[in-house]
Amino acid sequence: xxxxxxxxxxxxxxxxxxxxxxxxxxxxxxxxxxxxxxxxxxxxxxxxxxxxxxxxxxxxxxxxxxxxxxxxxxxxxxxxxxxxxxxxxxxxxxxxxxxxxxxxxxxxxxxxxxxxxxxxxxxxxxxxxxxxxxxxxxxxxxxxxxxxxxxxxxxxxxxxxxxxxxxxxxxxxxxxxxxxxxxxxxxxxxxxxxxxxxxxxxxxxxxxxxxxxxxxxxxxxxxxxxxxxxxxxxxxxxxxxxxxxxxxxxxxxxxxxxxxxxxxxxxxxxxxxxxxxxxxxxxxxxxxxxxxxxxxxxxxxxxxxxxxxxxxxxxxxxxxxxxxxxxxxxxxxxxxxxxxxxxxxxxxxxxxxxxxxxxxxxxxxxxxxxxxxxxxxxxxxxxxxxxxxxxxxxxxxxxxxxxxxxxxxxxxxxxxxxxxxxxxx
Length: 425
Known about the structure:
By secondary structure, this protein is an alpha/beta fold. It has two domains: 9-289, no CATH class; 306-422, Glutaredoxin (3-Layer(aba) Sandwich), CATH 3.40.30. It has helices at 14-31, 38-50, 56-86, 100-117, 124-133, 142-155, 163-172, 175-198, 201-204, 211-239, 241-263, 266-282, 286-289, 314-319, 334-344, 349-353, 370-378, 406-415, 419-422, and strands at 306-308, 323-329, 358-364, 386-391, 394-399. It has a five-stranded mixed sheet. Helix 2 (38-50) runs antiparallel to helix 6 (142-155), helix 2 runs antiparallel to helix 10 and helix 11 runs antiparallel to helix 12. The protein is globular. The chain starts with 13 loop residues before the first helix and ends with a helix. Residues 1-13, 123-134 and 294-303 have low confidence and may be disordered.
């Protein structure tokens, strides 16, 4: 059986370390452009505009607090990773999205924040939500700090193009490497906030409050609601459709109760608020109440081409002259979905994968899977997407870039020694 050996990342020299940190900074910056994260920065700027512009001091300190929240959360993730490795657990980037209760909690937060943007409530829950996403000067700068924490949590499933090498270096190294790279990632993601803190006039130069704000608040609310719907769709893979539908029903009921309690008064409003808390608690129940279906590494067959991942079969298939493509993916990995829709499921790649000497394996990491985690670690990788191609001329595999392109996939298929694949144009 082929043995996969991780590279000696601890041997990286000073210049190499600087390159790794540079990649981490760029990758962290790109995380701000992810569809789950971008609304948070936009909402924060909207919070400045809604108050008719704040003093330069308040803007500077508020965005510095958000930057601190981002950096703090990344360091907490780094420390948790160090502890997990010390305990002998498999580690990876975004693995918290493999846990159903985390998905439910984050979906609830997104719905609450959407309701706040739609002015569905103005009582204590609204103040809490408003503080986290917009800022409330009556409560100091803890609210701005929490906005940074929230943005970081939303960013973790979005493995940006430049993060693969940096995360691999961190997770394959010791505690110092892990914390240093995670700090660089946090600094990169905090750069837009630091830019506003450095030049606070940027925030106050935004358009004055007006009707456009109402439209923007509605749009951002729908963006957060879309994030909640995506989280529920990931939950459907992890805990089954029945659990996901039940959680979705709870989230829908939450929005209805938020709308109703704003229009009720007295005793009826009190009942609505108790119902709100009850529904919020009940949303955590379905993932535990309903049986979990299948295993994480039993991926559905797409186009009749894909088979479940089986690392033990790869050396045998290659020895028989086959070309093997392994794709490690997850429903919470946005980049993975883009790779599949734009490259793997389209010609010429899908045509090449349909040839008789080509075997396509899909490893689904949506739920925890020790075999998949170990397979990734064997390549010094701890995040996804990850794709590798084996063949008679590349028995140990050729790793592909995180962002796939048809040309790079076809070139790799040809390089590994697939005769029939090589004739494809």
